Automatic annotation (TrEMBL):
Alphabetical list of PANTHER family matching this protein: AMELOGENIN (PTHR10039), NACHT DOMAIN-CONTAINING PROTEIN (PTHR10039:SF5)
Region entry Disordered, spans: 1-32
InterPro entries named among the record's database cross-references: AB_hydrolase_fold, NPHP3-like_N
Source species, domain of life: Eukaryota
Keywords of the record: Repeat
Upper lineage: Eukaryota, Fungi, Dikarya, Ascomycota, Pezizomycotina
Organism of derivation: Apiospora kogelbergensis
Domain Nephrocystin 3-like N-terminal: 331-480
Protein name: Nephrocystin 3-like N-terminal domain-containing protein
């Protein structure tokens, strides 16, 4: 190949057959063909037309024209205009990295962005890139830089190129490591296949920078999900058998298409004939990339949008806000008074966070709700900081007393994305591009902090100049890092004293304090003066004081005495009209409260319980604070009779132990305990202890509800969770977060005489018994099984099963009475099977259907209930019996006990049958229970406790090949399962650091342990494994030995290097034994 092509003149455009109108549109450009910067080769966009821009970026040591030319034909200039007439075709050149221009990738990326920004002059037309070799890395760096500049609010003029980019064709660009060759070595090899060989220092620099290229590609994958990508790979070698490794020149992704071209590396970019296969491939891909969606695609987009919004939504989004009383303007308008720091913040273009701090129960939530709905607040934002942009509000009221979703980062993200996208459905595709067009439910889970965080950043990157977000986050001190709770010991989660003043007197735990730091950092990370303001409220705790140092702030309790006086007067006038000297009483209560609204309300209630003559003495006798061993809460409990106090303590402990706030039914049964000592039986198995009618059930629950009002001293209340909930299904919660915090303090209860110590295992067994007994009477409220539109358990009934299994997982292995444990779970299984059969037999089809009675119903009645989990998306997991579900719930002890009841070959066959469920969790399908509690975790998605493998092997299960030499299918499935938990194409970069997923780490550890166990029990390390990757046109099939697949799965995971060595040692030991025999 002659270098003379690199200095071709533009006059050669007439040598290829093109329409005369096209030839008139060819621009000569400024500068020489071999220079740096942009050059317009062709412009088919008439004034007033939208058109498209196609930008060509050559490889290392290439040239703007010559790199795209063959036999004096520059195909982007001379041929492409006829096939894409409404395009402007631009070529961009650059000096060699380090070799000539001493420019690094970041500098080249910025040069590309600056040049394109100048030549495009803010045109809204879309951009498509064609990048060859190392030029693809320059394009990736440029788009990553542009996206991050929009996310972080700097250089938006350069960042505008990112949301306009709709497609990229990479020609022989390395994207990842391959085999034993590092990413940097793949890049260096690509650099060698250039027009002029680069110098050795450059090659060494590229080869040694794998970390940079891996981070760049990880970030690029994250920001390019809405960009269609084509990876073209060469089939012919260059020179001495050199070519970009096939596995490196493409990568997996939903919007990524792979294609091979019968050409060498340089030939990927050079065509001289319109009828040539290479040119036809190129035009075909460009035509596809630039085409808009079809009507069928638009319908599919609309359907997927609704599916994603349904997944983001959860019932409790507005629960806590709805519980907060509406404030009168006259009690909150001080926040918007002239000179208020809050008002200044709303107008400011420099401040991104405002902190409404205040002592416990000082009215912060009420003030936040007032600000959220106040029109003056919105107007100040819209006319100032958000002028010329769409103003979008989000609000999240953290609620420690609710389910895990209501107090976690996952809940915050789901809440915000739903509130942003529900009124503007077109934003869903911008936030989650990779979830469109693929299977549903998606192979890659949507409801993870990683996926949702990327959704937020995608919106920032695409709309940072058009949308302005204001996020109200209430109750920072109620946030919990629920995904890392398992990392803490029991002592770390127990509330203890940390101070005697202010909010510190409520006590805290290490877990809670780490949570405070985490939510503060989350707020600081998302706050962006250009695109997002955060208004946060929380207690005045050291973590917040440290992390919010310097941000604008108001201390609520310093401004509420007059407002509280007014509020108390209104309450008093409503409840006790005409009370003498009411104004002075309310003013005194407000003064003594020191901003604590709850103290004032409780104090007023206690004062009014006496006579007019005792008002002042009662007021003077009240403790000046709520918490502590001498506070108002202790005074309220101390007034209870001894019997009521013990009941109060037990109910408190049961509510605190519950995974979600328990219903009145479950709590009423749990309070009665799980064991009847007189009869020596489980209470759940005693028919005479179970209500037989709805009237009897209502008596049980109403009795508890009435007693809550007396013996709980006002700490607990029953509230309806949803519009469909009956009174019996109301859940029991603490009236205020401070009450829950106080009740959690063991040191306080030690000060209360007559209260026995609690037994956590007994409490869990009692709650388990309560769940089972609730299931036994579920059909009194509604059928536990739904037969339309498909046959399945109702989500509300399945949630009781799931809660029971979670409780069992907490005590499994700690139980002294194994018979009682087994019998209780057996009763759960039998209860559900009876409910399943009874509901099916009672079902009456909507239309006459003889087949239901003759065939369908009898067949379903013979099935096991565990195989009919209610699903929001996908099919329910296949489960033949309760043991399958028990394994997925990691109930190792229960499985062991049950297998021991089987004999001989029956035991072995059952163990063999269960083995696959331990090593191959199914990622498909999402449970419908998530729509009820939001934080529901499917059992079938995760690796069970690997200790159950030893139980199955002891029972006779085998991982060895069959006697006929057939490979073990369980072994093959176990190996493939690891690909779901390990990936070298890491989507989380240093730019998007989030809390490590406990479940992902646990799944990795359990998969490694399972593979080691299978090898130790005879699995064939040399078994042949076929692995499919990609889909459609991009699908490929690769062949491995089992050991090769294990190595590739764990490659690049240093924390598992010791485990990999141990596995290889097992293989060597077995090979040595085999040789000796």
């Amino acid at each position: 190949m002659s270098d003379s092509r690199d200095s071709l003149s533009l006059s050669s455009s007439d040598k290829v057959g093109r329409a005369p109108s096209s030839s008139r549109r060819v621009l000569t450009g400024d500068g020489t063909a071999s220079g740096a910067g942009p050059m317009v080769l062709y412009n088919g966009v008439e004034p007033g037309e939208e058109g498209i821009d196609i930008v060509f970026v050559h490889g290392l040591n290439g040239h703007r024209v010559g790199s795209w030319s063959e036999d004096s034909v520059c195909w982007p200039r001379d041929m492409l205009g006829s096939d894409l007439p409404h395009a402007r075709i631009i070529t961009w050149g650059y000096a060699s990295i380090l070799g000539e221009g001493n420019e690094m990738f970041a500098e080249l990326a910025e040069s590309l962005l600056v040049d394109l920004s100048r030549i495009r002059e803010a045109t809204p037309r879309p951009v498509y890139f064609v990048a060859h070799g190392i030029g693809g890395i320059v394009v990736k760096e440029a788009l990553t830089t542009a996206a991050m500049s929009r996310i972080y609010g700097s250089h938006n003029d350069l960042g505008d190129i990112y949301p306009k980019t709709k497609g990229i064709i990479f020609l022989g660009t390395p994207h990842q490591r391959t085999g034993k060759r590092s990413f940097g070595e793949c890049v260096a090899l690509t650099a060698q296949i250039s027009l002029r060989s680069p110098n050795d220092p450059l090659l060494r620099s590229l080869a040694e920078n794998s970390g940079f290229f891996e981070n760049q590609h990880g970030t690029f994958q994250m920001i390019s999900r809405d960009i269609r990508v084509v990876c073209m790979r060469e089939q012919f070698t260059t020179g001495a058998s050199r070519m970009v490794p096939k596995d490196s020149s493409a990568y997996e992704g939903f919007s990524v298409t792979r294609d091979d071209m019968a050409a060498s590396h340089m030939g990927l970019a050079r065509f001289s004939e319109r009828d040539g296969m290479g040119y036809k491939q190129m035009v075909s891909h460009l035509t596809r990339l630039t085409a808009g969606p079809s009507p069928q695609e638009l319908e599919a987009i609309d359907t997927r949008t609704r599916e994603i919004l349904a997944m983001l939504y959860f019932d409790q989004i507005h629960e806590k806000e709805n519980k907060i009383e509406d404030a009168d303007d006259k009690t909150c308008d001080w926040l918007m008074a002239k000179g208020s720091p809050f008002r200044d913040f709303l107008k400011s273009k420099d401040d991104a966070i405002f902190w409404l701090s205040g002592c416990a129960s000082s009215g912060k939530s009420t003030l936040m709700k007032w600000a959220l709905h106040n029109e003056q607040v919105r107007a100040e934002l819209a006319n100032g900081w958000a002028k010329d942009a769409d103003l979008i509000y989000c609000s999240f009221y953290l609620y420690e007393g609710g389910n895990q979703l209501q107090k976690s980062e996952l809940g915050l993200l789901r809440n915000n994305l739903y509130q942003i996208c529900a009124p503007r459905p077109e934003l869903v595709r911008m936030a989650f591009p990779t979830y469109f067009g693929g299977p549903w439910p998606p192979e890659r889970p949507l409801l993870t902090t990683t996926s949702l965080t990327q959704g937020i950043y995608n919106l920032f990157a695409n709309f940072s100049t058009k949308l302005k977000f204001v996020v109200f986050v209430d109750g920072l001190n109620e946030f919990r890092i629920v995904n890392r709770e398992h990392h803490y010991s029991h002592e770390d989660t127990e509330i203890t004293d940390i101070g005697e003043h202010g909010d510190e007197m409520w006590g805290s735990s290490k877990w809670a304090r780490d949570s405070y730091s985490e939510i503060a950092k989350i707020c600081m990370t998302y706050a962006n003066k250009d695109s997002m303001k955060i208004i946060a409220s929380g207690r005045e705790l050291p973590s917040f004081e440290k992390n919010f140092k310097g941000v604008p702030r108001l201390r609520v309790q310093e401004h509420t005495e007059d407002a509280m006086t007014t509020y108390l007067q209104d309450c008093l006038e409503r409840d006790v009209p005409g009370l003498p000297d009411a104004h002075n009483l309310c003013k005194e209560l407000a003064r003594r409260s020191r901003g604590d609204v709850l103290w004032a309300k409780l104090a007023m209630k206690l004062v009014l319980e006496g006579s007019l003559r005792t008002l002042r003495p009662t007021l003077d006798s009240l403790p000046p604070r709520l918490g502590g061993t001498d506070g108002l809460y202790m005074k309220m409990l101390s007034s209870l009779a001894p019997g009521d106090l013990q009941q109060c303590f037990r109910v408190f402990q049961l509510v605190l132990r519950s995974r979600q706030p328990p219903s009145l039914i479950t709590l009423a049964f749990a309070e009665q305990g799980y064991w009847e000592s007189t009869a020596g039986k489980l209470v759940a198995t005693m028919p005479d202890r179970q209500p037989s009618t709805i009237e009897e059930l209502n008596v049980v629950t109403r009795n508890l509800k009435e007693r809550l009002q007396s013996f709980s001293a006002g700490f607990l209340e029953a509230e309806a969770e949803g519009a469909q909930a009956t009174e019996a299904e109301q859940r029991v919660v603490f009236c205020h977060q401070t009450g829950k915090e106080w009740a959690s303090r063991k040191d306080f209860w030690q000060e209360v005489p007559g209260v026995p110590p609690s037994d956590p295992i007994e409490l869990d067994f009692s709650l388990l018994s309560g769940c089972i007994r609730h299931l036994k009477c579920f059909n009194m409220l509604r059928p536990p099984v739904s037969a339309w539109p498909d046959v399945r358990f109702r989500p509300e009934a399945w949630l009781l099963v799931a809660n029971a299994l979670r409780l069992c997982a907490g005590v499994d292995g700690k139980v002294a009475n194994l018979d009682a444990y087994r019998d209780l779970l057996d009763d759960l299984d039998n209860t559900c099977q009876r409910a399943w059969v009874k509901s099916l037999q009672a079902h009456k089809p909507m239309y006459e259907d003889p087949d239901w009675y003759e065939r369908k119903c009898p067949t379903l009645c013979r099935k096991h209930w565990a195989g009919y989990e209610p699903m929001e998306t996908g099919k329910p997991p296949k489960r033949k019996d309760f043991l399958t579900l028990a394994i997925q719930a990691s109930l190792v002890t229960y499985v062991s006990v049950k297998l021991q009841t089987l004999k001989g070959d029956m035991r072995r066959r059952k163990a063999e049958e269960l083995l696959v469920h331990v090593v191959n969790p199914k990622p498909d399908g999402v449970s419908a229970c998530g729509t009820i509690v939001g934080d529901y975790v499917d059992f079938h998605h995760d690796m069970p406790d690997p200790r159950v493998l030893e139980v199955l092997f002891e029972a006779g299960a085998s991982a060895r090949p069959s006697e006929e030499g057939e490979p073990n299918k369980v072994w093959s499935k176990a190996l493939k399962a690891g690909r779901r938990f390990f990936t070298h194409q890491n989507e989380v970069t240093h730019l998007l650091e989030t809390s490590a997923s406990h479940r992902l780490l646990q799944n990795r550890e359990r998969w490694v342990a399972a593979i080691k166990a299978l090898l130790q029990h005879g699995a064939d390390p040399f078994a042949h494994i076929e692995l499919k990757s990609g889909s459609g046109e991009s699908q490929s099939l690769r062949h491995y030995s089992a050991l090769e697949l294990i190595r590739e799965t764990l490659e690049g995971e240093p924390e598992y290097a010791i485990d990999l060595n141990a596995m290889e040692a097992v293989v060597r030991r077995d090979s040595d034994v085999g040789s000796a025999m």
